[in-house]
Amino acid sequence: MKKSSLKTIIAALLAAALLCALAAACGGDAASNTDPSATPTPTDSVGKKDEVIIGFPGIPSGFDPLVTAGHGSYVPLLFSTLVALDADVNVIPDLAESYEVSEDALTYTFKLRSDARFTDGEPVKVSDVLFSLQTIMETASEIDLSVIDSVAAGAEGDTVIITLKHPQSTFILTMSGIGIAPEHLYGAGFAQSPVGSGPYKLAQYDVDQQMILEANEGYYGKAPGIRRAVFINMSGEDQQLIAARSGQVDITLTSATIAAVNTIDGYNLLVEKTVDNMGIVMPTIPAGSGTSSLGNPMGNDVTCDVNLRKAIAYAIDRERLCDEALSGYAAPAYSENDGMPWWNPESVIEMDVDYAISLLEAAGWTDTDGDGIRDKDGIKASVPVYYFAGDSARQAVAMSAANQVKENIGVELLVEGMGEGDIMAIMVAQPMILAWGSANPITSYYLYHSSSVGRDDWYNPESFASAAVDGYLEAALGAKTIEDAIPFWQKAQWDGETGTSMRGECPYIFLVNKDHLYFRRDGLNTGDQMIHAHGASWTLVANLKDWIWE
Amino acid sequence: MKKLNRRTAAAIIAAAILAVILAIYIGGALLPAAAIDADFSQKGLPPSPGHIFGTDFLGRDMFVRTIKGLSLSLTVGAVASAISAVIALAVGLTAALGRGIVDHAVNWFIDVFMSVPHTVLIILISVALSRGAAGMLIGVAVTHWVSLARIIRGEVLQIRSAQYIAAARGFGKSRLWIARRHVLPHLLPQFFVGLILLFPHAIMHESGLTFLGFGLPPERPAIGIILAESMRYISSGAIWLAIFPGVSLVILVLLIDKLGSLVRYLLEPREAQM
Known about the structure:
The complex is a heterodimer of chains A (550) and B (274). Chain A has helices spanning 2-32, 75-78, 126-138, 171-175, 237-245, 256-261, 306-314, 318-326, 353-362, 392-409, 420-426, 442-448, 467-477, 482-493, 538-541, and strands at 51-56, 83-85, 91-93, 96-101, 107-112, 148-153, 159-164, 200-206, 210-215, 228-233, 251-254, 267-272, 277-281, 330-332, 375-376, 379-380, 382-388, 412-418, 432-436, 508-514, 516-521, 524-525, 548-549. Chain A is of the alpha+beta class and 550 residues long. Chain A folds into 2 domains: 6-273 and 515-549, Periplasmic binding protein-like II (D-Maltodextrin-Binding Protein, domain 2, 3-Layer(aba) Sandwich), CATH 3.40.190.10; 277-514, Dipeptide-binding Protein, domain 3 (Roll). In chain A, the strands form 7 sheets. Chain A has a 7-stranded mixed beta sheet with strand order 8-9-10-1-11-21-12. Chain B has one domain: MetI-like fold (Orthogonal Bundle). Chain B has helices at residues 6-30, 62-98, 100-115, 118-128, 132-141, 146-160, 163-170, 175-211, 223-234, 240-267. The relative contact order of chain B is 0.14. The chains are: A alpha+beta (550), B mainly alpha (274).
């Protein structure tokens, strides 16, 4: 016994010593930053004016453009797309030097440029484009090209003709995210050693560790200022901070909590505005409304009351939320697409506690037992709000919102963390905090169209269904051009009487658009960035070819 | 004033430790959940008279969280070590009384069990039972009986072969009488001490497992969760988030260990030297 207790004591002392050492090391570091290795030495940045080291969460497990698409992916770095988007979300030429759309918006003719080559030296041919699109259409990937009726080569030999089954206003935006793969190389193993015709080529790739991109010497566009980019896998906030502090990276993601209390010599804080919104999604149907495709029971007897949902939406001071939960590195959010061309500015609401209370009172929610929480017919106005466990930003936003809602209108939101899989099983019956944000308005269609109900993906877990909104969404998606579609997208949000916004049916309580934050080494210019969509990593580097050292 | 003898002193110290442990347990259980609600006006504060352990980045008081966490650890520790001790008793008795092939089989089984590092085993069991509190409790409970089972087996075998047992048999005492009067009184102290000493192990494993993300769910105020969360902010200088809960856990474990030694001393003064 004596021995074992002595052992325990020694172990405890060692543990305590370790903790103290840790405390000393970290305490000193935080207080004064006197550690010599913490200040980047001048040689760090000399002689690499065309190289950048990026602390990057989420090195992908492969690079297959026929499986993954979109602006927020590796596609624009390694592959050509028929068209691209500029910083203001305008469609600009890329692999296609021009394109024409027929009067009925069913036929898209893309004229390919002649100087595009894959990095193995082969020219990019019409057949490669046809092959890529057909492969996507034939395989069940996450890219939805079901609107395409046929793809064919034009008579001139340098055109691709795509015929649609029906007009789709977002089609050209979808095409801006689809990378073209070489037919002669595509096959097993391609995802691990991809060959594209984009501004960069993959020079080295270590799964889960790093990837190194080098400029594609034969690129048809403007030669990138950054010739070599090293992406180091780095997902922890602390890891990212330490990497920047020790000068190991030129740019790295960080969080609002970390950015609020840390400054680093030689680095500036890059704050990118986003449509990366967070909101609480609430089931709009009562419990007992059937089950989802996976058999999960749908509906919630508290949140099915639109007045209660709206009352919550109006009871929240979103500016305060931004300050409290995200140290000011956020902006109030009122929809899934604030500030995008298809956003309806009328979706903005002002905090109005009196209005919120009047909605609740009129709907019969009163505090009968004096516990500070309203109730109605024996049901308490109290629901859980789930967040992905470990996501400190969502946790803080949800908790700050819950505090306000309880204080202002006596509705209780019990914030709880849970794993993604577990949340998926209950999200059709309980509120959760979700994040969206996309450069393509088709997201709104998936989010609110009644055909998305009960499918057990992240779209429409609230089981929202409205004939009026369905009509607007279908009209928007079926419009001939992006411009023609805008009024319908906007009406789907709010048409003066109803809509998906918080003024209308309020299936989502939108809270904040969180800024994307990065520690960036002084002198690194990251160019004009398109408004960031959901996800802070790929959206940052989408325009890597425009970055320069000053 | 008369000098206290060593037994009395030991009893007083044991009682004091027990009181502290009970206070932590009851304190944690009585503190309302609202005491650890987020309060953003108090976020990220270093230790001060108002918040002696400081606050975290949601403005939650770390002292309250720590006490709640330790209280939860004690509950988990109590349940896990009680289950473990009962398993140990059953296995130990089976081995000792079964003799022959049963004894060999049980010993072989214990050897196999001991050859697997039990942290790995706990993680496997916990994951197989879809994590959460139940998975972790069972994981800790079914991996910690081994050494106590050995001790109980050895103890029973030793008692059986003792001369006073043979004498009792000679006097014609029944098996039940011998078990009750001779075997049990010798076995119980071992059992209780073993039970108490399982406690710190169970608590450490609970915290460790939860820290690694295989244990208690993240909304529970467990020490493992607190420590895992704190790691993110240590490099920002918020060391109080890790230090105080961590040291508190170590102190609690040491206290329980000390309590175990004291109880052993009180029950079997000849075997346990203070």
